[in-house]
């Protein structure tokens, strides 16, 4: 996992996947999926996202639907990582499976130290976030299982090459 | 050795690697569920990797989101899904038969004690009949389709005990909304909710499905009822006999928390916009005019919901300011409702009864909300923008409350006071 550098987009608690990516933008067309990111919440966010930007949020990020279009939209916009107080289960699995690092604050109070537009660098392996003021915010180190999927480059890389077809 | 909960036992029974000390266990699954919108997301990768389905008899696929498709783009997605299912020769492809979660619990693949995964968060609903079932994303489901396995972390369990007797005007929806009010949107995060029904009359099976369905709104991984005679009745009626295993927790099972819920005090609840946990007793609600009423989705739309709505609408009319959309959860439910006369009663009263599918629940079709719409819905999520326009507002309630509000043209705190209770 390489170091991610970009600006912070800050969100609150319980940001559900319908708000992250409204159902109206569900599609197999990557361009449509990309444009839908946070569209209802604030249509000005998506056009201003730059590769390497980091989503920062409060509790229960990604609750709700399991639609992986929400992960696709985040990745298609070049968001490099999501840092939150904690994550909803399905979202966390989906993100990890697709090689999008999701890390939690070691101390939830550190959320208050971040603001939209701030420049940060996230070191997934080290589990740290550095701000432009050179503050270091510790994150919770990912477990062995998550590291294994990261190292492989996503869950699909752990598949047997081709599974044996059924007789 | 401390006692085990239902999810402990089901995960233990399905573990397929020896390394049982690791946090994540590799488990065999008994069944996989998928629908058009999520399965379509995995087909390209599945084919690119040259995969085949590990056991096609254990897969249930249903086109419920786009059934039938409302746009050309969705028709293309639907066709892609259907041709995938046919090329893979999946025998349980349920074409236009209703919402996948309802179809799963109507099917023999879903058995007590089973471990089931599905490409949709409400897969958890099968917990209503004693299965440990959970939703995952397309990539996880692709992996399971190819291998018959997945990884699972042992969840902590919260026991929820129901006591007392539910008032006749309240139902499973009110119970689970009350629980959401207690636990919030993340109170069950990563947890298994284990429901112990010690209530006076026992919750009916439809109420249990409504509760298990919305366990995911509390963040839970499983929402499983301790199987009892209601469960056994359901299986015997469905399969002719009990085929699965009634997995019950040990008497000394270790729970992270125990919640006691006295149902006798439980009057109707509503969740206000824009969170299913934004719950108040209906009697405390500020009156609000509605433009739309929706009875449907996998959260309800079952026979008892249609029966309650039909009872409310007998010899009454839907308010002229309200569009009332009704969608039975499956074609099976639809047929039963037809035979019972509910469809006729609802139609006479002015409701629109639509073909079984997700419909307006996910903002897909058959009643999507505009900016000025205020909806009272028996679905499971009132997240902002989910049912349509970002500015539309959805209140969640039981089918009975939805029907009463449809007649009144408003959600009011006195909905159960002056309409003549039966
Ligand atoms: S009815 Fe609603 S919640 Fe249920 S599967 Fe369909 S879109 Fe999802």
Automatic annotation (TrEMBL), chain A:
Q: Which domain of life is it from?
A: Bacteria
Tell me which UniProt keywords the record has, alphabetically. Answer: Lyase
Q: Does the keyword Phosphoprotein apply?
A: no
Recall the GO molecular function terms of this protein's record: hydro-lyase activity
Q: Where is the Aconitase A/isopropylmalate dehydratase small subunit swivel domain?
A: 54-107
Q: Does the keyword Kinase apply?
A: no
Q: Which InterPro entries match?
A: Aconitase/3IPM_dehydase_swvl, AconitaseA/IPMdHydase_ssu_swvl, LeuD, LeuD_type2/HacB/DmdB
Q: What is this protein called?
A: 3-isopropylmalate dehydratase small subunit
Automatic annotation (TrEMBL), chain B:
What region holds the Aconitase/3-isopropylmalate dehydratase large subunit alpha/beta/alpha domain? Answer: 8-409
InterPro entries (alphabetical): Acnase/IPM_dHydase_lsu_aba_1/3, Acoase/IPM_deHydtase_lsu_aba, Aconitase_4Fe-4S_dom, HAcnase/IPMdehydase_lsu_prok, Homoacnase/IPMdehydase_lsu, IPM_dehydratase_rel_enz
Q: Which UniProt keywords apply?
A: 4Fe-4S, Iron, Iron-sulfur, Lyase, Metal-binding
Which biological process, per GO, is one annotated for this protein?
Answer: L-leucine biosynthetic process
On whether Iron-sulfur is a keyword of this UniProt record, the answer is: yes
Q: Which Pfam families match?
A: Aconitase
Q: Where is the chain membrane-spanning?
A: none
Lyase recorded as keyword: yes
Gene Ontology MF terms: 3-isopropylmalate dehydratase activity; 4 iron, 4 sulfur cluster binding; metal ion binding
Which PANTHER family does this entry report, sorted A to Z? HOMOACONITASE, MITOCHONDRIAL, HOMOACONITASE, MITOCHONDRIAL-RELATED
Name-wise, this protein is 3-isopropylmalate dehydratase
Q: Native species of this protein? A: Actinophytocola xanthii
